[in-house]
Amino acid sequence: MAGTFDISLDSLAGRSVALQNVTSSDSPTASHPDGATFFLETFGCQMNDHDSEKVAGVLLSRGYRQVESPDAASLVLYNTCSIREKAAQKVFSRLGEYRTKQAAGQVIGVLGCVAQQEGEEIFERAPWVSLVCGSASYRKLPELLARIETGNQRVTGLDTDTDETFETPVTRRDNPWRAYLTIIEGCDKACAYCVVPFTRGPERSRASDAVLKEVRELAQLGYSEVQLLGQTVNSYSDPSARRMRFSELLLAVADVPGIRRVRFTTSHPRDFGADIVAAIESQPKLCNHVHLPVQSGSTKVLREMARTYTRAEYLEKVAMLREAKRPIAITTDIIVGFPGETEADFAETLSLLDEVRYDSLFSFKYSPRPNTPSLKMPDAISEEEKSRRLAVLQEKQREIQTARNAELVGETFEILVSGKSRRENQWFGYSTSHRVLNFTSQVNALLGTYVQVHVTGAGPNNLVGEQVI
Ligand code: SAH
Ligand code: SF4
Ligand code: F3S
User: Residue ranges of the chain with pLDDT lower than 70?
Assistant: First the structure.
């Protein structure tokens, strides 16, 4: 995968969540009688990460304690991703590892996109599973858990016909400085290759008042960065009487005292308008970064993908961003080897990279997915050819990033310090444009603070520098 921006909706590595940072508007009320414990592993995008933070909150408020090993848990939950075949396969191999657990009295549950997609089939393939629940039904989780606690063997939540969003009184967030916040769930676009409209249900936006209330609470708890989430975050449509536009909501979130940075992902090019650029220009707290997935540089392929814009229309949006008064980083997602993608189509994707000069990108080989329109499209591209195109694309992007990052040597960036390296006095963090900066500082206790860093060197994937005191 090219690039360093870890904002893609694609990290496939399983992660178990850390045991910290309970954000609560109410105190958790323990209702589970006998010291039950849960282990929760998450695959997939930031929306899944954040759903897991809420699921953990629901469990904590029922009196469960979170543990870091599946062996030690009475309830083992996998929050799954189905975006590409490999991601979905990984879930079944993980479930296979736990087939003996049920006999030992442990309850195994599958959540997320594979749960929604495979539904009750999961019970056939993995009869040791007791709970199957997709994200559009999470509002029912307390009820489903109560049924499991009273000994039900097989419990499902698979409806997608809801206009409700998943609200929780308690959220157990992973990161103490940057808070995820879903403002729109589901997806109404129908990209030909994509499972998300089937796995996450229809688009449902959260009322702007509820969003702003949570942001105020987060600021009071010490979070300085919020990242607004949605599969098509800029298709936000305020269901409340205020009818706030997405760009107005961005500005209102940035106005909350204590908030220093606001990010949002992922933007769909079709709904990306000049008002969003104007908001970023006028409010420095709105980060200098837009993730604007293009998928292909060929208008013909874009039409086959049902992306609803042409290459020229996409480039108009890029031009709007490039003309802004502040430099705004642009990152993207690209699929190579979509059915029928010719060498000439692929060459158009490569020329788009030259034209836009993305700050970073995530690139994927097309993966045929169940129920999607592109599954039946003719002229499949061989695995070998997909791999070749991916390598060519990534090499070109590497050159672009190397050149772009080299131009930044000598500049100074404000960094939110996010981690410490094993080497002494070495830290890393993110600029507002979401570049990774590794830097040295003699100061202790920098985590979660904002510092100025002078860039002294650059590679394709990161910058290095020194703290300016
Ligand atoms: N809602 C976002 C992202 C969805 S998933 C958007 O519309 O941009 C993240 C990325 O995974 C997509 O942008 C796409 O590049 C990739 N992706 C989705 N389905 C895929 C498939 N079937 N094969 C390969 N890549 C896929
Ligand atoms: Fe999938 Fe397209 Fe929706 Fe993104 S906009 S989640 S790619 S259907
Ligand atoms: Fe996210 Fe994967 Fe579902 S990318 S929306 S968890 S299919």
Answer: 1-34
Q: What is the per-residue pLDDT for 225?
A: 98
Confidence (pTM): 0.93
How remote is the C-alpha of 182 from its chain's centroid?
10
3-class state of residue 226 by DSSP? strand
User: Is 81 near ligand 3, meaning CB less than 6 Å away?
Assistant: yes
| Residue 288 one-letter amino acid | N
Nearest ligand to the CA atom of 47: 3
CATH number for the domain harbouring residue 124: 3.40.50.12160
82 C-beta closer than 6 A to ligand 3? yes
Using a 6 Å cutoff on CB, does residue 197 contact ligand 2? yes
Closest residue to atom 15 of ligand 1, CA basis: 333
Q: Ligand 1 center to residue 438 CA distance, Å?
A: 29
Of 262, 261, 260, the closest CA to residue 249 belongs to 262
What span, in angstroms and rounded, lies between the C-alpha atoms of 116 and 123? 13
Atom of ligand 2 nearest to the CA of 188: 3
DSSP symbols for 121-152: HHHHH-TTEEEEE-GGGGGGHHHHHHHHHTT-
Domain-embedded: residue 164: no
* CATH number, position 423: 2.40.50
